[in-house]
Amino acid sequence: MIHTRQDLIERLYEPQTLNVGEVDILVREILDASDSEVVKILADLLTYPNSFVAFRSAQLLDKVSQRRVQWLEPVSDTIWSLVVAGTYDDKLMWYLCQLIGRISHSEDRVGVAIEWLTNVLTTSPNAFIRVYALQALADIALGRHTWFIPEVRLIIEDQITVGSASMRARGRKLLKRIDTGT
Predict the structure, then answer these.
(1) Are 127 and 139 a contacting pair, CB within 8 Å?
(2) Tens digits of per-residue pLDDT, 1-58?
(3) From CA 161, how far away is CA 174, in angstroms rounded?
(4) Of 53, 57, 25, residue with least CA distance to 40
(5) Burial grade of 89 (CB within 10 A; 0-12, 13-18, 19 or more)
(6) What percent of the chain stands above pLDDT 90?
(7) pTM for this one?
(8) From CA 182, how far away is CA 175, in angstroms rounded?
(9) Exposed site from 31, 57, 82, 162, fewest CB < 10 Å?
């Protein structure tokens, strides 16, 4: 069971944490305890000096937020500070794209989010990161910022014609979501 920041760091340092099953166990522990405070610790650990701990924290934050997206709101400033500072590696960017797509954006921040994700989409050498950036753009448009749907549709259509196989597959799924409004 996770009780403190130190408990979590120790769990994340353990070699078996590389195992997807161990990550799932940690996610279940966090969700079963209904402990949104752990999310604050995870967000704090995104800047931990050990990049493995930071990466695993991002992975846990992503998986927990898939089920409890509202738990991201109290840590959205921490996530934003990483994006704005640009202090992340590719492994962390993978998860930052997903998290930025899930958090609520004020009118002031949504433009910055869209600009950052569009930049990631067009400049990242990693195909999976580009896919997650596209996903996040669609999530923003389908969330509170429906005014962005026509533009994101054009971006997705473009990526379907020029993107990798994974980009084309995700693009088709996203267009279906846009067409159905889900």
Answers:
(1) no
(2) 676 889 889 888 876 656 778 888 888 888 888 878 889 999 999 999 988 899 889 9
(3) 14
(4) 57
(5) exposed
(6) 62
(7) 0.89
(8) 10
(9) 162
